[in-house]
């Protein structure tokens, strides 16, 4: 069955053998296999029972990135609610040689309404091709709404790769904000990236602004490319040894991934009533 749907998980299988697994909890893609090899990192200590956001895979960050900084988001937890709510399976969009594609949706339920008062519509489309995974977040501001919807969105990819060898390009020349700096003032001061290839051999938590929308993630003998649309910024994160303080991180888990996260996180998307916005990423495995 190309699309298998249980009460907790949707599994996509492409005719050429690639697979993807999406938990309805947070619509977190927790597995993406191409040529039999897993491409995403999920901590073996991640809670998969809906008690907390998944430590790994592709969590969806919406409507705020990091701790809330907009008055509309003041009651929200870090990275918003999309990653910690149970979504609904909506429909199969496509099921053929080109790809297997499903749509999932999240309605404002009572819990969301208690922490977030803005009307919105939210759907997520996941498409699996032979060597490729696309994930698109669709945000709508209902026509009945009286004001613009202001939000941030980000796709928090945990890419399985050796963190002491992996490199990301092309970020050279971009402004970035270094969240590992000690003071708020230093965090708010933009730096300029001078490296042709960025590594995460030391603790890294960098928010690149107005980036290229095309990133190469490579390590010896392997690589993948990420193309983004409407997600103008990109975050590179790996905590190194600091990762041992993360409760649901497996032992030395930070050695096995790099987060490369396309998002709209500097400033806010402003969506007028009756309008839609789509943020998209396409991950493609290099031929091996
Ligand atoms: O996207 C990078 C980041 O914001 C880091 O600052 C780091 O805290 C990470 O996300 C994980 O956040 P989480 O809330 O999942 O522990």
From TrEMBL:
Family the UniProt entry places it in: Belongs to the glucose-6-phosphate 1-epimerase family.
Catalytic activity: alpha-D-glucose 6-phosphate = beta-D-glucose 6-phosphate
UniProt-annotated catalytic positions: 156, 261
CDD domains documented for this protein: D-hex-6-P-epi_like
SUPFAM superfamilies found in the cross-reference section: Galactose mutarotase-like
An annotated GO BP: carbohydrate metabolic process
GO cellular component: cytoplasm
Pfam family membership, one: Aldose_epim
Record keywords, A-Z: Isomerase
Protein name: Glucose-6-phosphate 1-epimerase
Lineage of source species: Eukaryota, Fungi, Dikarya, Basidiomycota, Agaricomycotina
Enzyme Commission number: 5.1.3.15
Record's keyword annotation contains Isomerase: yes
Principal EC category: isomerase
Function (record text): Catalyzes the interconversion between the alpha and beta anomers from at least three hexose 6-phosphate sugars (Glc6P, Gal6P, and Man6P).
Domain of life of the source: Eukaryota
One Gene Ontology MF term: glucose-6-phosphate 1-epimerase activity
Positions of substrate binding: 55, 78, 83
